Amino acid sequence: MRLATYNIEWFANLFDSQDRLLLDGARSARHGIDRYTQGHAIAHVLRRIDADAVMVIEAPNTGRRQRTTRALEHFAAEAGLRAREAVSGFPNDTQQEIALLYDPDVLTARHDARASADAPRFDGVFAIDLDVDAQADQVRFSKPPLELAVRTRGGTRLRMIGAHLKSKAPHAAKTRGEITAVSIANRRKQLAQAIWLHRRVAEHAAAGEHVVLLGDLNDGPGLDEYEELFGRSSVEIVMGDLLTDPHAHNLLQPRATVLPSTSRFYNPETKRYFCALLDYVMISRSLTGFDPQWRIWHPFDDAECYADAETREALLKASDHFPVTLDIALE
Hints:
By secondary structure, the protein is α+β, with helices and mostly antiparallel strands. The protein has helices at residues 35-49, 68-79, 176-206, 227-230, 234-239, 246-252, 303-307, 309-318; strands at 2-7, 53-59, 85-88, 97-102, 107-111, 126-128, 137-139, 146-152, 157-164, 210-216, 243-244, 263-267, 272-276, 279-284, 293-296, 324-327. α1 packs across α8 (309-318). The mean pLDDT is 91.
């Protein structure tokens, strides 16, 4: 079985108000790419990875007239994907939803949100003291994680969670002081979301359930200087000792020489591209005996992707993130 996570940059902008595809020469929200080019590139990438289930981050919008699942299923039909059914959870106000696109011949998936005293439902409020002032802060997800009950064709049950944690980027900040203050506040909120997410994982692990957590955590060990103020990255908090992902563990090595990355962004000030490890497929220890094999479909780091010119170009045009897949011996 192949599971994947893929952050598709502004996927919502390829659909009209009726969730019909807009594959024309008009500009997409992806810099320098038109909607026709981006749409066909996304289709090529999804056909190429050929996953049984894809956690789509920045999925099409759900709103007054739009539906994430309808848009994704329209796209799957147009692209000829066998992962042709979609499920989503709590909608948000960002036009960047979280949804699972899956092959119904291989597995079934349904939204199954949970709540407890330690970890409320993800569309709710999490009370935690973030700055050690003895006052509980009220934390919310702008993009509530998607909790799924999954059952494979062979009867294996999984708890699958799709997540997109808060970005640490200091948007709208201008002065150095503002940038520092906003960056620290954003990281503090992101860490609270990571704690919330870890508590849910811990509950499933304590119940003896298999857990797969996929998505964009907007963080990685050693990614910025503010991490030293808090001691640990959000990725380390989410994983704890309950989940594993070899790419995240690679960055924890004191002398890592080859640093994996799942995204590529352009810095207009330096006129250079920079890479970051932001996307993960984490699995519970209970799944490590099923021969898990991870792969980042990076157009320059993955030799097979680089050698395939069509796939390489599609990966670069589809999104500023690249898919991460997990092949695992589940039936």
